[in-house]
Design brief:
The protein is mainly α. It contains 6 helices and no strands. α5 runs antiparallel to α6. The longest helix has 38 residues. The N and C termini lie far apart (54 Å). The N terminus is likely disordered.
């Protein structure tokens, strides 16, 4: 009976609040990791092409982002990396919430959802920068 109450006792407004929290947390987490991931991504590309050494590119990118944060936040590099991480976190969070409401193990659905979102958004980013 407890699981029946758990899966059916939640009102639509409460579900909306849970999903809103999931998406907000994903957006913040994605935005938090994006500057470092962007700098690593750029450093790897510049190092592979011979344009710059790995560490000089990495720290140069971080300095550039810190010197012009609005320009960086408006740019495609921030958007696509944030889309990858924020989207992946959003998928994980919302699947976890839905499965907990239905009293279902989230492992399988979360793996499928995060793999699908992460792969799709990585392809979008690669196409944008190709």
């Amino acid at each position: 009976m407890a699981s029946d109450k758990k899966s059916t006792g939640v009102r639509p407004l409460e579900i909306l609040q849970l999903f809103t929290g999931d998406l907000f947390a994903a957006a913040i987490a994605g935005a938090s990791v994006t500057p470092v991931v962007s700098a690593v991504d750029r450093a790897l590309a510049e190092n592979a092409s011979g344009r710059a050494s790995l560490w000089s590119s990495f720290f140069g990118s971080l300095r550039e982002y810190g010197a012009r944060p609005i320009t960086y936040l408006r740019g495609p590099q921030f958007f696509y990396v944030w889309l990858i991480y924020g989207g992946t976190y959003a998928a994980a969070n919302t699947i976890e919430t839905m499965c907990s409401l239905k009293d279902v193990d989230a492992s399988g659905p979360k793996w499928v959802a995060t793999s699908t979102v992460n792969t799709t958004t990585c392809i979008l980013k690669d196409r944008a920068f190709a």
